[in-house]
UniProtKB/TrEMBL annotation, chains A, B:
Pfam families: MarR_2
GO MF, one example: DNA binding
Database matches in PANTHER family: TRANSCRIPTIONAL REGULATOR SLYA, TRANSCRIPTIONAL REGULATOR, MARR FAMILY
UniProt name for this protein: MarR family transcriptional regulator
Keywords: DNA-binding, Transcription, Transcription regulation
Leader peptide range in chain numbering: none
SMART domains in UniProt: HTH_MARR
InterPro entries, A to Z: HTH_MarR-typ, MarR/SlyA-like, WH-like_DNA-bd_sf, WH_DNA-bd_sf
Residue ranges annotated for the HTH marR-type domain, each copy included: 1-143
Source organism of the structure: Lacibacter luteus
GO biological process: response to stress
TM spans (from-to): none
Listed SUPFAM superfamilies: Winged helix' DNA-binding domain (SSF46785)
Length: 146, 146
DNA sequence: GGCATATAGTTGTTTATGCAACTACTCAAA
DNA sequence: TTTGAGTAGTTGCATAAACAACTATATGCC
């Protein structure tokens, strides 16, 4: 028994993620404006390495919710930009660990500041308790479907 | 003065739209499983034509929050699939109106049913009033950034 | 040890996106 | 009536995504 109805197109934006598209575009624009020459997708990989350097590509797949080919090519491009380096694991030769370079580490502070500012632009006029509810709903949706 | 802080990565999912990615993937999977051979992006264009046939490409840009090249190519592909047809406007020869074909119209009922079911899968365990709050927050975010 | 199965990662193909540069058409003002 | 600004749409290029097919390595069972 459905607990919600998709009526009158009011949930179109919800389903198509117009808000998150808008956030990604603004983040991209703000990074470019700040002289940070990476894509938002590359940012999402670096983000997890800043928290936890040396993740394997598979762990990056799980963390970023991207498939293996996507991570292969994102890491390819980040390597070309000299921001990360693949290191074959000694224990398990199937695994590449991905490590930040000095250059990659240096990006963290500035880039996270831009991300933080972008989020604040996005949330102007939204009470914090409503943001929390929204986050919870999106987390449940993600858990339902992932 | 920032009204929210981007702390401890808790808003990573919010910013990167993991929930809407999950919805889009599930919708794609459900359509394929139901024998509907279109992409979710093509669905988003057809959706607006079902509500309002004959929109111009520019109007489709506004409705779907995509840029002009994206709509050009989505309409290209929908035309190849014989689901829509471009018709040059008589009043203003710059404008293409996009009309559904009989085949395009026939997809509506089944496809909207699949979309509705997908949404219900996504929202299992979420009280309706929380969905409403989430929608409102996302609408404000979109309006802040669009 | 050897084989089946699973896991990590890569490659190929099609579709989609963002941005910039371009063509074609419209409209209004000199 | 011409010209110049604005609008609608297309094309080119780089990046990214989904899916399937592939290689290489690891592991567990006989």
């Amino acid at each position: 028994m459905p607990n919600n109805q998709f009526k009158k197109g009011e949930l179109y934006s919800f389903m198509t993620g117009k808000a998150s598209t808008a956030i990604a575009r603004r983040l991209q624009k703000n990074m470019k404006h700040g002289g940070i020459e990476i894509t938002v997708e590359q940012w999402s990989v670096l983000y997890h390495l800043w928290k936890n350097d040396g993740l394997s590509q598979q762990e990056l797949c799980n963390a970023t919710f991207r498939d293996k080919p996507s991570i292969t090519r994102l890491v390819d491009n980040l390597e070309k930009l000299k921001l990360v380096k693949r290191v074959a694991s000694k224990n398990d030769r199937r695994i590449n660990q991905v490590f930040l370079t000095e250059q990659g580490r240096k990006l963290e502070e500035e880039t996270m500041m831009v991300a933080n500012n972008t989020l604040n632009e996005a949330l102007i006029g939204v009470p914090a308790d409503r943001v929390d509810i929204c986050k919870e709903v999106l987390q449940i949706v993600y858990d339902n479907l992932k």
